[in-house]
Amino acid sequence: MTSESMIFVIIYLFTLLSAALEMVPISVAALLGAFLTVWFGLSYGVFTYEEATGFIDMKILGLLIGTMIVFEVAYRSGIFRLMALYAIKLSGGDSRLLFIFVCLTSAAVSMFLSDSTALLMIAAAATTISKFMDQDPAPYVVSAAIMVNLGGTSTLIGSVSNMIIGVNAGLSFTEFITYLAPCEFALWALTMATLYFNYRHVLGEKKAVPTYSPWESVEDKSLFNKSALLLVLFLGLFMIHDKLNLSPEAVALGCAVLALSLSNLDPSDIFRSLDWETIFFLSGFSIIVKGLEGTGLLAQLSQGFLAVSGNNPPLATAIMLWMSGLASSVVSNIAVALTFTPMIQEIQGLNTTALWSALVLGTNLGGAATPMSGVVVVMAMNTLKREGTTVSFSEFTKIGSLTTFIQLGFSTIYLIARFGLVS
């Protein structure tokens, strides 16, 4: 390894360490790492200033920001809260049905809504109902966090890491679903069964559900109807965007402009509500990874990956899945996606679609293994703390690591079978 490569590795590790130890916010860590990358890269002639200005992928940013705007408008209309409340009402006071509905709703909503927003919405509904029914909110909130983390696996817009991988791999919205939806739905069943088996002894008895009308929670019916139509248009265009010769980011940004135009909401208020922490982290870390790529280090790692896997498709896919999954359990899955993406782009002679799919699954499934794995878990723990319920690190890790290993194990079998990797 050259001295230039060593500098960029140190910057990369410093960024991850400072973010993991919460020395500074993750966005600040990424921006600081990006500044150092550009400074040393220009000083050592690793890349030019003109090359550095293109390190941030505007396609990914366009897709991310457009999707955030569309779903922020839809969230304010109350459409997602309505879905959650109806799911809970249908339980009829049966704690076991309520548990299943909370899990299913958590996973379904997070397929299209950001994980943090989905968790806040489901946790608020679950804690409210558990209070009315005098039940422990911990099984519902912990399970919601795990299912929210799982829910966005099979869609291009389900998570930021999916957007990064999908754009770089050239996968369309429909290809994403075709490759990964069967696996995700099977994982829903396996994960819910595991969670139910773990919590079955603490679920309360059946009680009468308080009388309430979910529809009454919708304050602006006009905005609700517009948002419902907009979501249908948004998802419909994503389903056929490749046939219309439209890029995913064009669909997202176009629908975002339409959402702002039709909603009559204050655009500045919408913009303030966007997840700028994620946007700046993504931008900064993209520059850091491009700096590593410029030294040729990631190309060397790709060759090392091929050597370890022996050009064996099943082994290579399994290694990619478990390596990215375990990495995502300790660092941001955005960082993992940005790091592994250029490595796969360098690989020749293997089924790269299987490798891309393994990276999608790994980066998503590793996000709920421990309380340190992702922001969704932290939010769930804080929600329970505000409700006067404490879930210890070991308690969450026990169920989080169990579900993660079950998910990764099943995904290994699925990928090998789905892509016919064993001849």
Structure explained in plain terms:
- It is built from 20 helices and no strands.
- By secondary structure, the chain is an all-alpha fold.
- The protein has one domain.
- The longest helix is centred in the middle third of the chain and has 27 residues.
- Helix 7 runs parallel beside helix 19 and helix 15 crosses helix 16.
Number of domains: 1
Query: Helix and strand string, N-terminal first?
Result: HHHHHHHHHHHHHHHHHHHH
Q: How many H/I helical runs? A: 20
- As a percent range, the share of helical residues equals over 70%
Structural class: mainly alpha
Strand element count = 0
User: Whole-number average pLDDT?
Assistant: 84
Low-pLDDT segments: none
Proportion of β residues?
Answer: under 5%
Outline type: globular
Distance between the termini: 38 Å
Rg, Cα atoms, Å: 22 Å
Largest sheet: none
Which key terms come to mind for this protein?
single chain, 423 residues, mainly alpha, 74% helix, 0% strand
Q: How do you describe this structure in short?
A:
This protein has helices spanning 3-20, 26-43, 49-52, 58-77, 79-89, 95-110, 115-132, 138-151, 160-169, 173-199, 221-240, 248-263, 267-273, 276-294, 297-309, 313-328, 333-346, 352-365, 375-386, 393-418. The chain is mainly α. The longest helix is centred in the middle third of the chain and has 27 residues, at 173-199.
